[in-house]
Amino acid sequence: MTTLTTPTGPRTAEAASRLTRRDFPQGFTFGVATSSFQIEGATSEDGRGPSIWDTFCRETGRIRDGSNGDVACDHYHRWEEDLDLIASLGVDAYRFSVAWPRIQPTGSGPALTAGLDFYDRLTDGLMARGVEPHVTLYHWDLPQTLQDAGGWVNRDTAHRFAEYAGIVAERLGDRVRSYATLNEPWCSSILSYMIGEHAPGLRDRRLALAAAHGLLLGHGLAVPEIRCHAPGSQVGIVLNLTPQTPRSEAPADVQAARLADGMANRLFLDPLLRGEYPQDVFAAAGDDAPVVEPGDLETIGAACDFMGVNYYSRGVVGEQGSAVPEDAPVTDMGWEVYPQGLTELLVRLKTDYANLPPLMITENGSAYADRLENGAVHDSERVAYLQTHLGALLDAVQAGVDLRGYFAWSLMDNFEWAWGYEKRFGLVYVDYATQERVLKDSALWYQAFLGKR
Ligand code: FCB
Q1: Which residues define the annotated binding site for substrate?
Q2: Which of 16, 119, 270, 273 has the most C-beta neighbours closer than 10 Å?
Q3: Ligand 1 within 6 A of 409 CB?
Q4: 18: domain CATH number?
């Protein structure tokens, strides 16, 4: 077996630890990110309808710790205190998502005023504190009624999504400078309909590929709706992109990594930026490939102002599947810490896609088993993770990639999907028993990096 050694990036960890925001281009946006289902709680308040995640959490064995999103970080009630927390970090921007079932409880029909009011107050509250709101319209909490009708496999969901996007953009308008349609369509299709790990928990490749197409169609239909109601705002999409490295030079490994790259990355990048689906992925899928109707690819290819990239790790792929290289450093998720993968990924995007819009890193972060001791959380591994990834980002900027911003995932510990509350990604520690928020060392470091301390 070939043992892969993790190459050393061009910037040492020591050098990365000395970076400050002044090393980045002027106007570069720094922020923190969250999503509605992971923090809000209040799942049945003010008319909110059930989402697929509420349903999924109630199915036995789906969530590691048997938990759900009913309370989460209680952000729906504590939003003002949380906005103060965000402002205290010294960030320029906050990326949050709107819960579709708060706006349209069954996914269609008239909008609920209470739901829109909540995000309206959040937007104004951010602006009053000098923090730019960056909105994501779909971070996985699909109204259950739409799932009952087939979810993203049903093309009608794409049309419903565009309608909902228009409603939100009409209410929040240009006060929100940045709208992302979807967060990580790979997760809401492949991970949810084929791997079965996320809601709705199916294991069917044909449905997964149809869902991926439905999501992309929804994105393409939503772009003009948002532009119509918020003409001064930036519109884009957020993809989780994971470089897939072959574990050896053996042709079978190289071929496996190429196909893994197709499913993870090109399945989304190519239709968005090249107006075509990757042929190798469709060929490998055979009869499971989705039906693409005339005009779909033109819709999906709607020009965007930015593309959000979520980067956590890479895959090392061989004929037998994907495995973390021996002795590689890993986070509490078991994901390899591989900052140079971020540089490689961004440079590759610039090389491979002539129509690439400006990029934002919309998520990057790490889970570690943090402990609150004497009022402090010494998360030195997370600090190093952030520093080395910011260093990798700067390497990409210096290689000529048009990068406009960076959002750390996440503002605070939250409901980590199938892992429940077991995994902590926050810069801020949440004591779920009391809902107390405590700045971890990583939050204190980010403040200093941003010049707030
Ligand atoms: C991403 C999700 C985000 C969070 C992080 C750890 O895939 O967008 O909600 O769960 O992973």
Answers
A1: 38, 139, 183, 312, 409, 416-417
A2: 119
A3: yes
A4: 3.20.20.80
- Residue 204 neighbours by CB under 8 Å, 6+ apart: 193, 194
CA of 5 to the centre of ligand 1 (A): 27
DSSP code string of 325-389: PTT--B-TTS-B--THHHHHHHHHHHHH-TTPPPEEEEE---------BTTB---HHHHHHHHHH
Q: Is the CB of 363 under 6 A from ligand 1?
A: yes
Q: How far apart are CA 137 and CA 180, in angstroms?
A: 6
Question: End-to-end distance of the chain based on CA atoms, in angstroms?
Answer: 49
Residue 183 CB–ligand 1 contact under 6 Å? yes
User: For residue 109, how far is its CA from the centre of ligand 1 (angstroms)?
Assistant: 29
Q: What is the pLDDT along the chain (453 residues), one digit of tens a residue?
A: 333 333 445 678 999 999 999 999 999 999 999 999 999 999 999 999 999 999 999 999 999 999 999 999 999 999 999 999 999 999 999 999 999 999 999 999 999 999 999 999 999 999 999 999 999 999 999 999 999 999 999 999 999 999 999 999 999 999 999 999 999 999 999 999 999 999 999 999 999 999 999 999 999 999 999 999 999 999 999 999 999 999 999 999 999 999 999 999 999 999 999 999 999 999 999 999 999 999 999 999 999 999 999 999 999 999 999 999 999 999 999 999 999 999 999 999 999 999 999 999 999 999 999 999 999 999 999 999 999 999 999 999 999 999 999 999 999 999 999 999 999 999 999 999 999 999 999 999 999 999 986
Distance, CA 146 to ligand 1 centroid (Å)? 23
Residue 225, ligand 1, Cβ within 6 A: no
Token representation of residue 228: 């119509």
Rounded distance, CA 111 to CA 43, Å? 17
Q: How far is the CA of 364 from the centre of ligand 1 (A)?
A: 9
> Is ligand 1 within 6 A of the CB of residue 35?
yes
For residues 211-220, one letter each, b for 16 or more C-beta atoms within 10 angstroms of the residue's C-beta and e for the rest, the string is bbbbbbbbbb
Among 363, 419, 424, name the best residue to mutate to test ligand 1's pocket (greatest count of ligand atoms within 8 A of Cβ): 363
Closest protein CA for atom 9 of ligand 1: 35
- Pull the structure tokens for residue 151: 């979810």
Q: How many helices (H) and strands (E) does the chain have?
A: 17, 13
Q: Are 448 and 387 in contact (CB under 8 A)?
A: no
Q: Where are the beta strands (DSSP E) in 184-331?
A: 234-240, 244-246, 306-310, 315-318, 321-322
- Output phi, psi for 183, to 5 deg: -100, 120
Q: Which residues are catalytic?
A: 184, 363
Task: Name the residue range of residue 322's domain.
Answer: 3-449
Q: Is 315 helix (H, G, I), strand (E, B) or coil?
A: strand
